[in-house]
Amino acid sequence: LHGSQVVIDVGGFLGIGAKPVAVTASQLDFMRDEDGDVHAVTNWTKDKLKAMPEHRD
After folding, report:
1. How far apart are CA 29 and CA 41, in angstroms?
2. Contact between residue 55 and residue 22 where contact means Cβ atoms under 8 Å apart
3. Phi, psi of 7 (to 5 degrees)
4. How far is residue 18 CA from its own chain's centroid?
5. Is 14 helix (H, G, I), strand (E, B) or coil?
6. Per-domain residue ranges of the chain
């Protein structure tokens, strides 16, 4: 988490070939599953996420 932005990896397979993109936290819905793990959900398509610019620190 970077301020009000969340950096997530998109694309790739099992983390290989993925790129980090920054999204605004308010555009995500956070949910906790029955095991207690937290997941972020968005209505964006995979193509829209892949088209976002790569985040660099």
Report:
1. 5
2. yes
3. -100, 125
4. 11
5. coil
6. 5-51
Q: What is the pLDDT of residues 4-47, one digit of tens each?
A: 888 988 888 876 888 999 998 888 999 999 999 998 888 889 89
What's at 1, amino acid-wise? L
| Residue in the block written with tokens 């209505």 | 43
CA–CA separation, 11 vs 30, rounded Å? Answer: 20
* Count of residues in the chain: 57
21, 53 Cβ separation under 8 angstroms: yes
pTM above 0.70, yes or no: no
Tell me the C-alpha distance between 15 and 53, whole Å.
17
